[in-house]
Design goal:
membrane; single chain; mainly alpha; globular; 7 helices
Length: 231
């Protein structure tokens, strides 16, 4: 039996994301006032994705509690739709985008923090908030994957969805550069057009790999549990 019910964990995680988002939006940084605002940063988009995902998780738990034993077929159909949406969001957005943000941020940060998170930002963003945006995303999504089984969509539709998201964000970044003459991320200023194409292509491939990793990890966790129960 779990020490903390997964429903309680989801509420706690949702509240933590709401707190992180509120604190982040309250910071008056020059970049927030420029074209695209906070929405030009993948970190902020990911925080919104995670908050919406865990909001759907909490709503699903409440709906499940309210419909339990009611025998209302319409309510049960609506609950199944909600569960399908929850599972789709984890598979296509919450897991691959969340893991991507954590992995890429800390890899580039370790190489040269000025390329991704200039030291100047320490004057605006406290350390705990930085970790809330770039670190805790990973354990939170792994906790969710470990505590609840999620049905993945067909591989072709899932990969098509994550490719659409990746290409859409790349086009958004390029559009911002077209409008403002500035790249969203400092390191893009220091590489040539060819290197940018390679980087953008590599990030799309990485997103697809992370989708497949999530699918394999989800299957491994729950197949292992089912095997253990049969023994």
């Amino acid at each position: 039996m779990a020490l903390v019910p997964c429903q309680v964990l989801r509420v706690a995680i949702l509240l933590s994301y709401c707190s992180i988002l509120c604190n982040y939006k309250a910071i008056e940084m020059p970049s927030h006032q420029t074209y695209g605002g906070s929405w030009k940063f993948l970190t902020f988009i990911d925080l919104v994705i995670q908050a919406v995902f865990f909001g759907i998780c909490v709503l699903t738990d409440l709906s499940s509690l309210l419909t339990r034993g009611s025998g209302n077929q319409e309510q049960e159909r609506q609950l199944k739709k909600l569960i399908s949406l929850r599972d789709w969001m984890l598979a296509v957005l919450a897991f691959p985008v969340g893991v991507f943000v954590v992995a890429v941020f800390w890899i580039i940060y370790a190489y040269d923090r000025e390329m991704i998170y200039p030291k100047l930002l320490d004057n605006f963003i406290p350390g705990w908030l930085n970790h809330g945006m770039h670190t805790t995303v990973l354990p939170f999504i792994l906790i969710e994957m470990r505590t609840s089984h999620h049905a993945y969509p067909s591989r072709s539709s899932g990969l098509a969805a994550i490719c659409t998201f990746s290409v859409g964000y790349i086009l958004w970044v390029c559009w911002i550069h077209h409008v403002t003459g500035m790249w969203v991320y400092p390191f893009l200023e220091h590489i040539g057009p060819g290197a940018r194409i390679v980087f953008f292509g590599s990030t799309t491939i990485l997103m697809n790999f992370l989708y497949l990793l999530g699918e394999v990890l989800n299957s491994y966790i729950w197949d292992t549990q089912r095997t253990a129960k049969l023994k």
